Amino acid sequence: MKVIATKIPEVLIFEPDVFGDHRGYFFESFRRDVFEKYVGEVHFIQDNQSKSGLGVLRGLHFQKPPFTQAKLVQCLQGEVLDIAVDLRIGSPTYGEHVAVRLSETNHSQLYVPRGFAHGFAVLSETAVFSYKCDNYYNPGADGGLIYNDPSINIDWILKLDEIKLSEKDTKLPPFEEITCFDYKYFR
Question: Which CATH number is 44-185's, of 3.20.20.140, 2.60.40.10, 3.40.1080.10, 2.60.120.10?
Fold first, then answer.
């Protein structure tokens, strides 16, 4: 398994070694020893899965402290543009984001640490997306950031008229209003 650094040191891409032949393929999708060598000790306790159509944009979401979540995400079917935004006030990469294409063909996974907003846009006809989380979802701690905030300037690749949002995601606040993540708690 290759571990690829991104421009934000805590956000990592895990790219498996895929072995294939006429029967199909095989790869290790998670190895605790490799993961902990790069990330440290993390205990995943909840798995989630979603299915979405072309143009669906889910995000940018997070759980407010003290219910923050780290996630290991991957696209099982189709292709998505996956985004992680650093919300940690005082971080050297505060306000920056990482954008990675995850697909059923590259089998890559993105590690999104606590203190980050996360979202993805579906680039294929459909996509099945999987999340491993290190904390349980808490509806009272649900939070988000508007996907098109000009201060973070994400290129979602899709045309504006292709983007499909939930009603909730159309009403998320701008980046400047997210003030609950202090970097000292996420080191």
Answer: 2.60.120.10
